[in-house]
Amino acid sequence: MEKSEQFSDYLFAKMGPPSSTTVNGTELPPKTTERSGAPRELTGYRKWLRENLMLLVTLSGVLLGVIFGFTLRPLNLHEDSIMLISYPGELFMRVLKLMILPLIISSLIAGSASLNARMNGKIALRTLVYFVATSFMNALLGIALVLLIHPGDPNLHNTADRSTDKRAVNLLDSLLDLGR
C-alpha cells in the first residue's frame, strides 16, 4: 500500500466517507466545509466595534495629533515644515466650514417639509420675526461702532503705527495657496 492510500484511509477513518453517513439508521447529510450564505450575527465586542467605529477612528486621530504635536514642538522646525504639516488640517477645517451651511439649510427644509401646514406657518412667522429682529439689532450695532471707532477718519489713519510684520512669500507658500 502506498503512503497516499494510507493517508486517505486515515482521513476517511477520522472524517467518514465523503458522501453521507448513517447514525442509528438515520442518514446524515454530507459534511461540508463551506460557509452558509447568511452573514454571521455580530455579538459582544465585534458588534460594539462596528457600531462605534467612527467614534474610535475620531478619538484615535485626535490622540495621534496630540502625540504628533507634543513630539514635534521641541524640535524647533523651520517655518516651511510647519506650513507643510499644518496644510492638511487647514484644508480639513475649510471643508468643514464649507459643509455647514448646506447641511443646516437641508435639515431645515427637510424638517419643515415634514410638518403640517398650520405648524409650518407658525414656524415661518417666528423665523421671519427672528430674522427681522436680529437684522435690526445688527444694524444698530454697526451704527454704534461706526460712531465710536470712526473708520476711515484721515487723522486716525496718519497716527496709526505703520510697522506691520511683512513675511516674505516663497514658492512653497504660493503652491500651497493653490489648494487653499
From TrEMBL:
Keywords assigned by UniProt, alphabetized: Glycoprotein, Membrane, Symport, Transmembrane, Transmembrane helix, Transport
Keyword Transmembrane found: yes
Pfam families linked to this entry: SDF
Transmembrane residue ranges: 53-72, 92-115, 127-149
Region entry Disordered, spans: 14-38
GO CC field: plasma membrane
Membrane topology: Multi-pass membrane protein
Cellular localization per UniProt: Membrane
Domain of life the protein comes from: Eukaryota
Alphabetized GO MF terms: glutamate:sodium symporter activity; L-glutamate transmembrane transporter activity; neutral L-amino acid transmembrane transporter activity
Statement: the UniProt record of this protein carries the keyword Repressor: no
Main location, first listed in the record: membrane
Gene3D superfamilies in alphabetical order: Sodium:dicarboxylate symporter (1.10.3860.10)
Family: Belongs to the dicarboxylate/amino acid:cation symporter (DAACS) (TC 2.A.23) family.
Name of the protein: Amino acid transporter
Gene name of this polypeptide: EAAT
